[in-house]
Design goal:
- It is built from 8 helices and 13 strands.
- By secondary structure, the protein is of the alpha+beta class.
- The chain has 2 domains: about 130 residues, no CATH class; about 130 residues, Umud Fragment, subunit A (Ribbon), CATH 2.10.109.10.
- Strands 1, 2, 3, 4, 10, 11, 12 and 13 form an 8-stranded antiparallel sheet that branches. A 5-stranded antiparallel sheet has the order 7-6-5-9-8, with no helix packed on it.
- Strand 3 and strand 4 form a beta hairpin.
- The chain is elongated and about 85 Å long.
- About 30% of the residues are buried.
């Protein structure tokens, strides 16, 4: 077979393999991956039908992703710089393959096809990733708002100042490579205390319909806060909070936030490690894009990350 015909055939096969990977990922992973299979599938079919822009278009689609890749994979919790290198190299190789396949088709007199649909398709799939990021919920600290196995889409750009009652994502005070999710209870200047598990903000008891209180044999937190309890692992946070106690209330300083998990008795939060700096806030949840019924151990395990039944009713829940 002449090289001019062999190369487009190879490119079509690779496109079908990529489409198959997306389909397989949908079965074993996020359901939102399924629409992405349409792009390489369309490219493969078009190349087999000898349409030049099916190859050029898929090359354009792949190479446009390069603009978003450094932003996406350099964010907290995305895997670090090594992912940038591998992803960029892979994208460049695939892009080059389809550019050369397109030239081969054009040289052999193949039909040109339409460029516009491919150019239009590249933008709406690439541009949103500049503004949003995906996260997995590994623990039950936000139950019953968020469950272990929930996958959320969060707005990470532009960042807005959190408001009282909003759920936010922020860098873990203990592991700067991890992102946590909690609810903002108090903002700079607010006065907050907890009495018999009831949060009192600026002198008014909050009606927290989202809060969950479960009984445990040994409860970690006392019912009242602030207090003189010596909680293991919380010494640094308690020292921070103690400097802000005025008349039995904690006054939130400028540029800081007081956050709690909705599952109050099963959440490490500001009661332990103190305030969250505004500079550590990385995003605000927008919706649950997928949800798998899992234990925290399964979420954190790379071999079991997507094992479990899909919670269909939680898909596409908006915050």
């Amino acid at each position: 077979m002449p090289t001019s015909r062999k190369l487009p055939l190879i490119a079509a096969i690779v496109a079908f393999v990529i489409a198959g990977i997306f389909v397989l990922e949908t079965l074993l992973g996020p359901i939102v991956a399924f629409p992405l299979a349409i792009v390489p599938l369309s490219a493969g079919i078009g190349i087999l039908r000898r349409r030049v822009w099916s190859a050029y278009g898929f090359a354009t689609f792949i190479l446009v992703q390069l603009f978003a890749i450094p932003i996406v994979v350099s964010r907290p919790g995305s895997g670090g710089a090594h992912r940038i290198v591998f992803t960029v190299i892979g994208s460049l190789l695939l892009g080059a393959l389809y550019l050369v396949a397109g030239r081969s088709l054009a040289a052999s007199g193949a039909a040109r096809g339409k460029a516009f649909p491919w150019i239009v398709a590249a933008a709406p799939i690439t541009i949103p990733w500049v503004f949003v990021q995906t996260f997995e919920i590994p623990t039950g600290s936000m139950e019953g708002t968020l469950l272990p196995g929930d996958r959320i889409l969060a707005q990470t750009f532009p960042l807005q100042l959190p408001k009282r009652g909003e759920i936010v994502l922020f860098l873990s005070p203990r592991d700067r490579g991890s992102v946590l999710v909690k609810r903002v209870i108090a903002v700079p200047g607010d006065r907050v205390q907890i009495s018999r598990k009831v949060v009192i903000l600026n002198g008014t008891a909050l009606d927290e319909k989202y809060a969950v209180h479960k009984a445990y044999e040994q409860e970690f937190y006392p019912e009242d806060f602030p207090n003189d309890a010596d909680l293991p692992g919380c010494e640094e946070g308690h020292e921070m909070l103690s400097r802000q106690v005025v008349n039995g209330e904690i006054v939130v300083p400028a540029g800081k936030y007081f956050v709690l998990g909705d599952n109050r008795e099963n959440s490490l939060d500001s009661r332990c490690w103190g305030f969250i700096p505004s500079g550590d806030v990385v995003g605000k949840p927008l919706m649950i894009y997928d949800s798998i019924d899992q234990t925290p151990e399964q979420v954190l395990s790379s071999s079991q990350n997507w094992r479990g039944h899909r919670r269909w009713k939680r898909l596409f829940m908006v915050f």
